[in-house]
Design goal:
single chain; mainly alpha
Length: about 70
Amino acid sequence: MPEEPSDAVLLELGRLTWAAINLEDVIPSMRRATSQPPARLDRAPISEWVSNALGVLVGWPESGTRQPGT
């Protein structure tokens, strides 16, 4: 059986999980701010929301606050 991770590793995993949970709640609102999302996203996993938002942003002009290719 593998050795259990240290408390420090578990703490960081907890922080990462908490950040992901909070991000998941924000992504649909951010996507809606760019334009009306397609109805198919209503019940889609958050990864599809992110992919769709990135696809929309590809067509936007570059800006100083947005890094190309990210």
